[in-house]
Write a structure and sequence with these properties.
This protein folds into two domains: about 80 residues, no CATH class; about 220 residues, Gamma Fibrinogen, chain A, domain 1 (Gamma Fibrinogen, Chain A, domain 1, Alpha-Beta Complex), CATH 3.90.215. By secondary structure, the protein is of the alpha+beta class. A hairpin with a 7-residue loop joins β2 and β3. Keywords: Calcium, Cell adhesion, Extracellular matrix, Glycoprotein, Secreted, Signal.
Length: about 325
């Protein structure tokens, strides 16, 4: 099987009418209680008794009560940054009570929280919480999910800045962000699991026991957030990702692939394209078999270039 490019004549996807990069919601427009909630959520799940003592609020009982009441709003926090300093939230008392903030879902699992769901992690440090979905059940759990698609509700045909910082909602379809991925893989060795499901309810996975993003770069962005995967394990999906190892990430507004044309534009997605792809998990959500060539959510070694998958998850945990 050859990689999906160049496109056959007449099969190139049109970009006319599709969404241009969406500007993330500015954090200054978010309710203060919602920001407070994002700042205090990990304290709450780590020390549930603190709600009654007020210790997490440093005596500011009213603010803490508001934060708890706003807790369900955590599920609406986008994967974009929600920095307390941007919002003017004072979190010094919380930091004193909750000095250990989780880097990833491995840390959360180690604290005894082993239920699938949305949690906060801190790959950039204590002042930048990032909502993430943790898979705590698959193959022993501890998976930090960085890409999730299941219904086509979120456009993944986006520009460089969105893919750098992340977009979507952690309780729905989302992308965690290339910078977050890089920071995570700098600190530990990770393995990658790619879970796939088609519209006939068949499932398969591919696993790579070595995964990193620009591990040796002085500037990960200048390095293109280069993908490295190795040590493939087949879970029925076949290996569609090794072909992409060593490649920079490309979007329609930042072409870093090896093909003469822009692979991201041709494939209606964004990925670590070479010339062009065997995997296009950020392509259009086309609902199964499609006539257009290689522009759906494709994993070629399992379903080929004319089948767009129903569900995908890309997730990492410490190796």
């Amino acid at each position: 099987m050859r990689a999906a490019c160049p496109l056959p004549p007449g099969h190139g996807p049109s970009t006319k009418g599709h969404l241009s990069p969406v500007t993330p919601q500015h954090p200054a427009k978010v309710l203060t209680t919602r920001a407070m909630c994002s700042r205090t959520f990990w304290c709450f799940v780590s020390h549930p008794g603190a709600a009654s003592t007020g210790r997490c609020s440093g005596g500011r009982g009213r603010e803490w009560t508001q934060a708890l009441l706003a807790l369900p709003l955590l599920l609406l926090i986008s994967a974009d940054r929600c920095a307390p300093q941007v919002l003017g939230i004072r979190g010094d008392a919380l930091d004193k009570f909750c000095p250990q903030q989780p880097l990833d879902c491995d840390d959360i699992y180690a604290q005894g929280y082993q239920i699938d769901g949305v949690y906060l992690i801190y790959p950039s440090g204590p002042s930048l919480p990032v909502p993430v979905f943790c898979d705590m059940t698959t193959e022993g759990g501890k998976w930090t999910v960085f890409q999730k698609r299941f219904n086509g509700s979120v456009s993944f045909f986006r520009g460089w800045n969105d893919y750098k910082l992340g977009f979507g909602r952690a309780d729905g379809e989302y992308w965690l962000g290339l910078q977050n991925l890089h920071l995570l893989t700098l600190k530990h060795k990770y393995e990658l699991r790619v879970d796939l499901e088609d519209f006939e309810n068949n499932t398969a996975f591919a696993k790579y026991h070595d995964f990193s993003i620009s591990p040796n770069a002085v500037s990960a962005e200048e390095d293109g957030y280069t993908l490295y995967v190795a040590d493939f394990e087949d879970g029925g999906a076949g290996d569609s990702l090794t072909y992409h190892s060593g490649q920079k990430f490309s979007t329609f507004d930042r072409d870093q692939d090896l093909f003469v044309q822009n692979c991201a534009a041709l494939s209606s997605g964004a990925f670590w394209f070479r010339s062009c792809h065997f995997a296009n998990l950020n392509g259009f959500y086309l609902g199964g078999s499609h006539l257009s060539y290689a522009n759906g959510i494709n994993w070629a070694q399992w379903k080929g270039f004319y089948y767009s998958l129903r569900r995908t998850e890309m997730k990492i945990r410490r190796a």
